[in-house]
């Protein structure tokens, strides 16, 4: 007998339909044959499924059984086909009579006891089920909780194979999984300690960070060891505004496809913060693999990507950031296919001025030879540096500043100003895909960043003196617009433009 169960496969961060076809009653010795480009995890499903069937009180097929995962040209990976394969075997062997089984989309891993385990991609499957008009989804409980965030689709949480079979044949009734309202995460003690009030001194760096977060701009901090660069970077997510519902669902789709949500906790509406080690590979940063998947830059979508000790990253890994920083998405081509992943992130980077870290420090002597310094700086190419909007020096703190008891301005005050600036930007860009000043198009720059003749001459003079590129010209205008928004100014003033220009002065002073 032939049975067909509807399931799905992940391609990037999207789900595509997969038909699990089970045919029993074939002549030959009792054996299971699995076809349809399965990977190793899928091929091992027969052992898990047979044990789950036996321990759930069902009998094994007594004839040759063929299982086809269609379409055959799409590679299948993961253990999410365990549950649909098991249900297909029950229908094909007439142990389960289920009407309108085609109306359900089914996915889930099975333990040897028959209990279900969560699988990645629940949100993408819910989007697929809604688009294809499925009656409901049958998913493991944690995956089901994630899928309920998609409106207009019914989701049932399945705890075991036996429960799924009894539900489909009408022996029991299940209540559809209810969506848990999205809430802001309550910071625990460790998170609450990451407050800008703990940062002593560094007023210029704090200001640059506030400007960068307000407009979604990229930021580079340069200073000696112990100047507080990493401490400041770790506190950047604390002053970012809460993501909108659409932004959060985009974030969750990526993390779900990467298997980052399998431990639950998907209902806390917050922006991601990623801080990969400098030994990360190109694929780990950009994304890819035999079956292309999201990397760190996509996992930081609508959030922060912090690269500490920037020159220590491999040159090739840094260079792959050029196009994603410009476009907000990355296209990955592999033999298994080509996918485009979103990666609209804010880059925060930190580095020392030289290998020993003390170049220009009045209290420490630099031990680096000129050739060492040149090689160190050359690890960051001019085109990559050009795409970083703000460069700020973080000088070493004096003993008096370290001993000061007066706390700095707290993160809550900075976040209030950032949120007010973002509200102005959202109102400005209503009806477009632009969400922040850093992503303005050329048309939007011309419309929202006009300069009178005096300011135009000022910017031209600065460009000529600093030998800046055309890309730096646009980024100065974007940063100026953000500074004006923080000052609640409709037009860019000379003070706003001058502050934006000073954030580009390190282009030539430090690196060339």
Cα(first) to Cα(last) distance is: 74 Å
Provide the domain count.
Answer: 2
The average pLDDT is 88
Number of helices: 23
Report the radius of gyration as a whole number of Å: 27 Å
CATH topology title of the largest domain: Rossmann fold
Structural class: alpha/beta
Explain this structure to me?
38% of the residues lie in helices and 17% in strands. It folds into 2 domains: 2-168, Ribosomal Protein S5, domain 2 (2-Layer Sandwich); 189-399 and 413-509, P-loop containing nucleotide triphosphate hydrolases (Rossmann fold, 3-Layer(aba) Sandwich), CATH 3.40.50.300. It has a 5-stranded parallel sheet with strand order 11-14-17-10-18. A 4-stranded mixed sheet has the order 1-2-4-3. It is built from 23 helices and 18 strands. Helix 4 (122-132) packs across helix 5 and helix 8 (203-215) runs parallel beside helix 18. With 512 residues, the protein is α/β, with parallel strands linked by helices.
């Amino acid at each position: 007998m032939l049975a067909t169960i509807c399931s799905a496969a992940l391609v990037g961060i999207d789900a595509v339909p997969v038909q699990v076809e089970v045919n029993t009653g074939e002549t030959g010795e009792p054996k299971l044959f699995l076809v349809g480009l399965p990977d190793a995890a899928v091929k091992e499903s027969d052992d898990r499924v047979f044990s789950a069937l036996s321990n759930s009180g069902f009998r094994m097929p007594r004839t040759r059984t063929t299982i086809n995962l269609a379409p055959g040209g799409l590679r299948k990976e993961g253990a999410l086909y365990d549950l649909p394969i098991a249900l297909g075997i029950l229908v094909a062997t007439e142990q389960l009579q289920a009407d309108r089984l085609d109306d359900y989309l089914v996915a889930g891993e099975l333990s040897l006891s028959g209990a279900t385990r969560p699988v990645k991609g629940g949100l993408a499957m819910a989007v697929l089920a809604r688009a294809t008009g499925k009656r409901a989804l049958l998913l493991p409980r944690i995956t089901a909780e994630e899928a309920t965030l998609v409106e207009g689709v019914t989701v049932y949480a399945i705890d075991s194979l036996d429960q799924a079979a009894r539900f489909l044949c009408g022996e029991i009734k299940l209540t559809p999984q209810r969506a848990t309202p999205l809430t802001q995460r309550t910071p625990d003690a460790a998170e609450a300690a990451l407050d800008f009030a703990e940062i002593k001194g560094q007023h210029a760096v704090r200001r640059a960070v506030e400007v960068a977060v307000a407009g979604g701009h990229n930021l580079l901090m340069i200073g000696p060891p112990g100047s507080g660069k990493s401490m400041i970077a770790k506190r950047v997510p604390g002053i970012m505004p809460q993501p909108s519902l659409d932004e959060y669902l985009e974030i969750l789709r990526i993390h779900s496809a990467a298997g980052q949500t399998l431990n639950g906790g998907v209902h806390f509406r917050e922006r991601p913060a990623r801080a990969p080690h400098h030994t990360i590979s190109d694929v780990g940063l950009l994304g890819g693999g035999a079956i292309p998947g999201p990397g760190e830059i996509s996992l930081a979508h609508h959030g922060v990507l912090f690269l500490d000790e920037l020159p220590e990253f491999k040159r090739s890994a840094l260079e792959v950031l050029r196009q994603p920083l410009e476009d907000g998405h990355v296209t990955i081509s592999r033999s298994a296919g080509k996918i485009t992943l979103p990666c609209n992130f804010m880059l925060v980077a930190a580095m020392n001025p030289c290998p020993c870290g003390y170049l220009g420090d009045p209290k420490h002597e630099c031990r680096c030879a000129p050739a060492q310094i040149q090689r160190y700086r050359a690890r960051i190419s001019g085109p990559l540096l050009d795409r970083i909007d703000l460069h700020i020096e973080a000088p070493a703190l004096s003993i008096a500043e370290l001993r000061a008891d007066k706390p700095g301005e707290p993160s809550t005050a900075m976040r209030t100003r950032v949120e007010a600036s973002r509200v102005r930007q959202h109102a400005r860009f209503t009806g477009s895909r632009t969400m922040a000043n850093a992503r303005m198009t050329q048309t939007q720059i011309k419309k929202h960043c006009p300069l009178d003749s005096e300011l135009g001459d000022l910017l031209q003079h600065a460009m000529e003196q600093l030998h800046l590129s055309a890309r730096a010209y646009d980024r100065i205008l974007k940063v100026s617009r953000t500074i004006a928004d923080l000052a609640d100014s409709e037009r860019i003033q000379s003070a706003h433009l001058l502050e934006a220009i000073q954030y580009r002065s390190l282009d030539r002073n430090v690196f060339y």
